[in-house]
C-alpha cells in the first residue's frame, strides 16, 4: 500500500526526488547559502540585550536594573550581553555572532503595527507597499530557485508578494486520509490559487517531518524545525520565524529574562540542528524599534526608537559589536527620551544579505529597501 | 455567487442546516438589524456584569497572595507546582467555556449578519487573552460590552469598550498613574519608587479605535489622552479600594488621576475626573478621520481587501451624517452595490470558515472543547490575536499552504463527526445557485457522505466568500 509519503514522492509535481522526499516546488537547483530571519515583534529593548555599561548615563538611567548585569559576559569595553543569552555569548566568543547597536529603520513614530509594516514591506511609509522585503529577495535569486518558508500558520508580510513562499507549522490535528488527499487535485483543478497552495503544503510537510512536534511556540522545537527546513538539501534556503512578546511596558526584568531565555534556547537548538551547514548560514534577529531609555512608572519601558540587531551564523564576521555609539546623556537622546539611531537597519540587512548571497549590496538595497540614501553596511560576512 | 449565496456567506456566517433559504436577500439582512438579540438564550446565566469583573479581579489578587504566601514556606515545591497548575487549568476552562459559548451563539443565530458584526467589532476593539486578567474578562467583555452596542451608536460602544476592565487590563491602563497625581506626590514624599504614565491605551484609542494611523494626531495628543485616562482602573484591586465603581464595570480612582485640563486635537477639556475621558472619546467618535477609518474597515470586510473608494466615501458620509448610528451604516452597506459583486471578494478567515462548518452541520454538540482547540491549529485562536490591532483582515494573512492543510485535516475530522443524509443536497443549500460543476462533481464522486461533506468543507466555494 502506498503511504502518504511515498505517494507524495511520486506526486503530481513530477520532480526528481531525493531520499528525503520531494522538493519544495521551487527548489530544483538550490544554492548553498542559508538565511534565517527572526522577527522579534513588540520592540526589543536593545539596551537590555547588549547593555552599554561603559556609558555612565546608562548607569544613571537604568540604575535600578544594573544588578541584572552583575555577572554578565562583557562583549567589549562598552557592552555586556544579557545574562540569559549564554549560548549566543558562546557564539560571539567563537566569532559567530555580531551585535549591531543603535540601529533603527526609517520609521520614527511609535506604533508597533506601522513599524512592523515598514520593516516587513521595506517601504518608506507604512502600508505604502503590499509585498515584503524577503519576498523580493526571493525574486532576486530567481536564477537560483530559492525557496522560502515561514514557520507560522499564516504567511507574514515580509514573505508576501509575487514570488513563491510557503508556510509551515506542525499540526495538532489528525492527518488527513489518503482518500481525501487523493481527491483534492480534482477539487482544485479549476482553482489556481488553491491548487498551488495545496501542492506547496504537501512538499513542506514531507521535509519538516514534524510528527513528534506539537507546538512551534516551544523555542526548542522552533529552533529544531527551522534547522530541519534549512539543512535538508531539498528544503528551504530562507526561513522566517516570529518571536513575539517583547513589549515590556510593565515588569520588564521578568519579561526579558523569559524572552531572551527563549531566544537563546531557540538559537542553541538551531545551531545544533544545522551541523556543517551552519558555516553557510546567516541568522538575522531584528525588531521594529527600541524602547525608552528611562524606566517608566510600571517598571517597564515605553516605545522608543533605536534598538540592537543580532547577526549570527558561521558566515558572520562576528565577535564584535558594530556601532557608532551616540551616547545616552540627556542631550544625546533622540527626542529627549530614546536611543538615537546611528545606523540604518535597512542598510544593515541589505549589506548582510548582499555579502551573504554574493549579490551587489547596492542593488539589494534598491530592491528590498528602495528610495533611501543610506549605503549598505559592509564587511559583515566572512 | 447569487444574491442569496452572497447574503448567506459574505454578509452572514453561512447556511444553517435546516433553516429556510431567504427569498429576499437584502431584506433578510436588513430585518436582522432590528431582530438581533444582544443576550440570546444560549448565553444562559453567564455573568457579564460589574459584579463579575470585580469578582474576577479580586480572585486574581487573592490567588497571587496565596501563591506568595506559599513561596515563603520552605519546601512543598510539589504543592506549589500543583497549585499553579490547577489555577492555570481553572482559568483555561473558563476561557474555553466562553469560546464554546461564542461558537454556539454563532451556530444558532438567526441574525448571522449581526453576529458577524459582533465578531467584527470585537476584533476592532481587540483584547488578547495572553495578558493577566484578560482570559477571565474577555468573554464577559464581548458578551456584555460589545453585543449590546453593535446596534447603537459608535460613541457608546467606544466608551464601553475602550474603558472596559478587559481593555484596561490588556493595555496596562490600570497601572498608569498621573505624574502630578496625589498618588505620585505621596510616593515622592515617602521616597517610594516612581510609578508613572503609561501611554499604551491612549495611543491605541487614537490609532486603532478611532482616528486610525495618519488620522491627524500627534505624540502630544497621545500623551494628553493618556493623562486624561489616568484614574481609570479595575474594580477589586486591593490597593485601590477607594476607587469608585463605574457603570461599565471599571472603576475610577481619583488618587492616581492627573489633575488639570487636557488638550487633545486642539480642543481643551476641563478637569472632570472620570468624565474628562468620556468628553474626549465623544469628540473622537465624531471626528471625520474616525468615520473614514471605520468605513474603510467595513468596506474591506465586505467588499474586498482593496476597499472600493466610492463605498468608503458613502459609508463615511453615512457614519458622519447619522452621528455614528451603526444600524444606519449597516443599511447603507447592504444598499451599496460593491458588496454584491458576483465573484468572491474575501478569503475566509479560519473563524468564519469554522463557524460555517458548524452551521452546516447544525450540530450544537460540535461547538465544544475540541472545536476551541481546533481554532488554535487553524491559526486563529479565538480572542488571542496577540495584538491590540486584532486579526488582520487581508487574504495574505490567511491563504497559506500550511493553513490550507490544517483546514483539510480539520474538515475531515469534523465531517466524520457529523451525521448527514445527503452531502449533495447540503452543498446546494449552502451555496444556492453558486456551486461550480467541478465541486458538485467531486462531491458526487465521493465514496461516502462523510467524504462528500469533507470535500464540500474544503471546496473553493467554502474557502472564499
UniProtKB/TrEMBL annotation, chain A:
<dbReference type="InterPro" id="IPR006311">
    <property type="entry name" value="TAT_signal"/>
</dbReference>
<dbReference type="InterPro" id="IPR010869">
    <property type="entry name" value="DUF1501"/>
</dbReference>
<keyword id="KW-0732">Signal</keyword>
<dbReference type="Pfam" id="PF07394">
    <property type="entry name" value="DUF1501"/>
</dbReference>
<feature type="signal peptide">
    <location>
        <begin position="1"/>
        <end position="27"/>
    </location>
</feature>
<protein>
    <submittedName>
        <fullName>DUF1501 domain-containing protein</fullName>
    </submittedName>
</protein>
Automatic annotation (TrEMBL), chain B:
<dbReference type="Pfam" id="PF08811">
    <property type="entry name" value="DUF1800"/>
</dbReference>
<protein>
    <submittedName>
        <fullName>DUF1800 family protein</fullName>
    </submittedName>
</protein>
<dbReference type="InterPro" id="IPR014917">
    <property type="entry name" value="DUF1800"/>
</dbReference>
Amino acid at each position: 500500500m502506498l503511504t502518504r509519503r511515498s505517494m507524495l514522492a511520486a506526486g503530481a509535481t513530477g520532480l526528481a526526488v531525493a531520499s528525503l522526499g520531494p522538493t519544495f516546488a521551487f527548489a530544483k537547483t538550490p544554492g548553498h547559502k542559508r538565511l534565517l530571519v527572526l522577527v522579534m515583534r513588540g520592540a526589543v529593548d536593545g539596551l537590555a540585550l547588549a547593555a552599554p555599561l561603559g556609558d555612565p548615563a546608562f548607569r544613571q538611567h537604568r540604575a535600578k536594573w544594573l544588578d541584572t548585569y552583575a555577572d554578565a559576559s562583557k562583549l567589549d569595553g562598552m557592552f555586556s550581553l544579557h545574562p540569559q543569552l549564554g549560548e549566543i555569548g558562546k557564539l560571539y566568543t567563537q566569532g559567530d555572532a555580531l551585535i549591531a547597536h543603535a540601529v533603527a529603520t526609517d520609521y520614527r513614530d511609535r506604533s508597533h503595527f506601522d513599524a512592523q509594516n515598514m520593516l516587513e514591506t521595506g517601504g518608506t511609509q507604512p502600508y505604502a507597499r503590499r509585498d515584503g522585503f524577503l519576498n523580493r529577495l526571493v525574486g532576486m535569486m530567481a536564477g537560483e530557485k530559492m525557496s522560502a518558508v515561514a514557520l507560522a500558520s499564516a504567511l507574514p508580510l515580509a514573505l508576501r508578494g509575487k514570488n513563491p513562499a510557503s508556510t509551515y507549522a506542525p499540526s495538532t490535528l489528525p492527518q488527513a486520509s489518503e482518500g481525501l488527499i487523493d481527491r483534492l487535485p480534482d477539487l482544485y483543478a479549476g482553482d489556481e490559487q488553491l491548487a498551488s497552495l495545496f501542492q506547496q503544503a504537501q512538499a513542506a510537510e514531507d521535509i519538516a517531518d514534524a510528527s513528534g512536534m506539537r507546538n512551534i511556540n516551544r523555542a526548542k522545537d522552533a529552533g529544531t524545525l527551522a534547522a530541519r527546513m534549512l539543512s535538508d538539501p531539498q528544503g528551504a534556503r530562507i526561513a522566517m520565524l516570529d518571536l513575539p512578546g517583547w513589549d515590556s511596558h510593565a515588569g520588564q526584568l521578568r519579561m526579558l529574562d523569559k524572552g531572551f531565555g527563549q531566544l537563546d534556547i531557540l538559537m542553541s537548538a538551531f545551531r545544533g540542528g544545522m551541523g556543517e551547514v551552519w558555516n553557510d548560514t546567516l541568522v538575522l534577529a531584528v525588531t521594529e524599534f527600541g524602547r525608552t531609555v528611562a524606566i517608566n512608572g510600571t517598571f517597564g519601558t515605553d516605545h522608543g526608537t533605536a534598538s540592537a540587531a543580532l547577526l549570527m551564523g558561521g558566515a558572520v564576521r562576528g565577535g564584535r559589536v558594530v556601532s557608532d555609539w551616540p551616547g545616552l546623556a540627556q542631550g544625546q537622546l533622540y527626542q529627549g527620551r530614546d536611543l538615537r539611531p546611528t545606523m540604518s537597519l535597512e542598510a544593515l540587512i541589505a549589506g548582510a544579505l548582499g555579502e551573504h548571497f554574493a549579490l551587489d549590496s547596492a542593488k539589494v538595497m534598491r530592491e528590498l529597501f528602495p528610495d533611501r540614501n543610506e549605503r549598505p553596511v559592509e564587511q559583515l560576512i566572512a | 455567487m447569487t444574491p442569496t449565496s452572497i447574503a448567506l456567506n459574505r454578509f452572514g456566517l453561512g447556511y444553517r442546516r435546516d433553516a429556510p433559504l431567504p427569498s429576499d436577500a437584502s431584506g433578510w439582512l436588513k430585518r436582522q438589524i432590528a431582530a438581533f438579540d444582544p443576550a440570546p438564550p444560549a448565553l444562559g446565566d453567564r455573568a457579564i456584569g460589574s459584579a463579575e469583573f470585580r469578582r474576577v479581579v479580586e480572585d486574581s489578587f487573592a490567588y497571587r497572595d496565596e501563591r506568595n504566601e506559599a513561596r515563603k514556606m520552605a519546601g512543598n515545591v510539589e504543592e506549589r507546582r500543583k497549585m499553579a497548575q490547577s489555577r492555570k487549568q481553572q482559568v483555561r476552562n473558563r476561557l474555553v467555556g466562553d469560546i464554546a459559548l461564542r461558537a454556539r451563539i454563532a451556530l444558532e443565530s438567526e441574525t448571522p449578519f449581526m453576529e458577524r458584526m459582533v465578531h467584527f467589532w470585537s476584533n476592532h476593539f481587540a483584547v488578547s487573552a495572553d495578558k493577566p486578567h484578560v482570559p477571565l474578562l474577555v468573554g464577559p467583555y464581548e458578551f456584555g460590552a460589545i453585543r449590546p452596542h453593535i446596534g447603537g451608536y459608535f460613541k457608546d460602544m467606544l466608551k464601553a469598550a475602550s474603558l472596559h476592565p478587559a481593555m484596561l487590563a490588556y493595555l496596562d491602563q490600570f497601572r498608569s498613574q498621573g505624574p502630578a497625581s496625589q498618588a505620585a506626590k505621596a510616593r515622592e514624599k515617602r521616597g517610594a519608587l516612581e510609578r508613572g504614565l503609561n501611554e499604551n491605551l491612549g495611543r491605541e484609542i487614537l490609532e486603532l479605535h478611532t482616528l486610525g494611523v495618519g488620522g491627524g494626531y500627534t505624540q502630544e495628543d497621545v500623551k494628553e489622552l493618556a493623562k486624561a485616562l489616568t484614574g481609570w482602573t479595575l474594580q477589586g484591586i486591593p490597593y485601590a479600594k477607594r476607587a469608585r465603581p463605574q457603570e461599565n464595570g471599571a472603576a475610577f480612582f481619583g488618587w492616581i488621576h492627573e489633575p488639570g485640563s487636557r488638550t487633545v486635537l486642539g480642543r481643551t477639556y476641563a478637569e472632570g475626573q472620570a468624565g474628562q475621558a468620556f468628553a474626549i472619546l465623544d469628540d473622537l467618535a465624531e471626528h471625520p478621520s474616525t468615520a473614514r477609518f471605520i468605513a474603510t474597515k467595513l468596506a474591506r470586510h465586505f467588499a474586498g481587501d482593496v476597499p472600493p473608494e466610492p463605498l468608503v466615501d458613502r459609508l463615511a458620509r453615512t457614519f458622519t451624517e447619522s452621528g455614528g448610528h451603526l444600524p444606519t451604516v449597516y443599511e447603507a452597506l447592504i444598499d451599496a452595490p460593491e458588496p454584491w459583486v458576483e465573484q468572491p471578494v474575501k478569503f475566509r478567515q479560519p473563524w468564519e470558515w469554522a463557524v460555517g462548518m458548524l452551521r452546516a452541520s447544525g450540530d450544537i454538540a460540535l461547538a465544544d472543547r475540541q472545536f476551541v482547540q481546533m481554532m488554535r491549529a487553524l491559526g486563529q485562536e479565538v480572542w488571542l490575536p496577540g495584538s491590540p490591532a486584532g486579526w488582520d483582515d487581508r487574504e495574505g494573512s490567511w491563504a497559506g499552504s500550511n493553513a490550507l492543510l490544517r483546514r483539510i485535516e480539520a474538515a475531515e475530522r469534523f465531517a466524520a463527526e457529523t451525521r448527514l443524509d445527503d452531502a449533495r443536497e447540503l452543498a446546494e443549500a449552502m451555496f444556492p445557485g453558486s456551486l461550480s460543476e467541478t465541486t458538485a462533481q467531486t462531491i458526487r464522486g465521493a465514496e461516502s457522505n462523510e467524504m462528500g461533506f469533507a470535500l464540500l468543507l474544503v471546496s473553493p466555494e467554502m474557502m472564499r466568500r
